[in-house]
Amino acid sequence: MYIASARAGRGSRLGSVPPTVVALGTVSLLTDISAEMITAFMPVYLLFTLHLSYVQFGLIDGIYTGATAILRLVGGHVADRLRRPKLIAGVGYGLSASTKLLFPAVGASTFGIGALIAVDRAGKGLRTAPRDALISLSVPTERLGTAFGVHRGMDTIGALLGPIVTFLLLANLGSAPTPIFVVSFGFAAVGLIVLMFFVRERPVAEVPAGPRPSIRAGLALLADRRFRRACAVAGLLGLATLSDVFVFVLVQRTTEISIGALPLLPLLTAGTFLLAAAPLGRLADRVGRWPMFFAGHLLLLGVYLLLLAPSGGYVVAVAALVLHGLFYAATDGVLSAWASTMIPASLRASGLSVVQTGQALARLTSSVAFGFLLQYTAIGTAVLVAVGTLAAALLVVAQVTRTSA
């Protein structure tokens, strides 16, 4: 099955990747414009308009990160069971799009905002594993890093454009949230249309190689030592990773750049990710996906260390955000490419969802814990704890992978 799908991909390439990858990249581009518009707006809205505490902010951000967790497993299992990953991904994209029109209705309600964020992230949880399965089944094994790099690069164009759209709307229409949410919905809706009409998947009658999809078969993947180690590594490093919004808030606070520049900080991360995702994906195919994944977290450690710099300003902010973008380019798609080689085709979405669920739960814990830490300690102390936690996690992971190699 996998060989057949790989040949189909080679026969229908548009440039260096199959049209399926390009179409899914376009869907992600449009969806990420929608999502990053909200991400860029939320820190200003929650911290400086609604004046939420860091604890409340951490809880909401934890919901944003972790609400995907369980539904990743559901989405992966159902996609494999029905052999319809496009359908399940479409449900997830549609669910996320629908929430954008409801944000203005909940106003300043922390509970309402948290609930809608949970629904939005539930949609992401449903779609992520089926989407990555569609990508991984459309290319040969030796080109997985390249395919995921191209997809993540296109996705990042959306991450780059989203904050710009938010900034322009705020600059021209003021801080009223309704226009931002309505425009965000428009981009998400167009992305769903592209998915429906331009993304192709293998015929339902074509049975993929591997065990029959079931919850037991998906969990049985953990019996494989290599796959179990990949899940543990992703979870441990996820536990030591600060969420994007905390990184952006910390960059603004530690470098003392203006609050008005906060919605624009994601641009440098996204721009660097855009330029580096495909090249680092190709490099990962050559030098190994695990070494690239580990190196990416060393770059993240550099971000945290820069936040301790005694003199701030734009130079430190730019350096930190460029490293942050390189971290994502070296890890985001590379993790899925690395894990895909350990999972049979019939369980591809289920297996990827197991890895991604562990990482999402770890990052939920990280967001909530760091919110409490930032609320009750100085910013410098909180950053020192983040540095120590990530350094310790890297040492443990290096030792585990060395002894189990």
Give a topology summary.
Elements: H1 2-11, H2 19-49, H3 54-66, H4 69-82, H5 85-99, H6 103-106, H7 110-136, H8 144-173, H9 177-198, H10 215-220, H11 225-239, H12 244-255, H13 265-287, H14 289-306, H15 314-340, H16 348-376, H17 379-403
Could you please describe the fold and organization of this structure?
This protein is mainly α and 405 residues long. The protein has one domain (2-403): Growth Hormone, Chain: A (Up-down Bundle), CATH 1.20.1250. It has helices at 2-11, 19-49, 54-66, 69-82, 85-99, 103-106, 110-136, 144-173, 177-198, 215-220, 225-239, 244-255, 265-287, 289-306, 314-340, 348-376, 379-403. The radius of gyration is 20 Å and the shape is globular.
**How is the biggest beta sheet arranged?**
none
Category by helix and strand content: mainly alpha
Q: Whole-Å distance between the termini?
A: 29 Å
Count of distinct structural domains: 1
Radius of gyration: 20 Å
The overall strand count is 0
Could you tell me the mean pLDDT? 81
Query: How would you sum up the global shape?
Result: globular
The helical percent reads over 70%
The CATH class: Mainly Alpha
What is the H-and-E element order?
A: HHHHHHHHHHHHHHHHH
Question: Total helix count?
Answer: 17
Beta-strand content bin: under 5%
Given as residue ranges, the uncertain stretches (5+ residues, pLDDT < 50) are 1-15
The CATH topology is Growth Hormone, Chain: A
Second rung of CATH, namely the architecture: Up-down Bundle
CATH superfamily placement: MFS general substrate transporter like domains
Domain Major facilitator superfamily (MFS) profile: 20-404
Transmembrane segments: 21-48, 54-74, 157-174, 180-199, 230-251, 257-278, 290-308, 314-339, 382-401
Keywords: Membrane, Transmembrane, Transmembrane helix
GO molecular function: transmembrane transporter activity
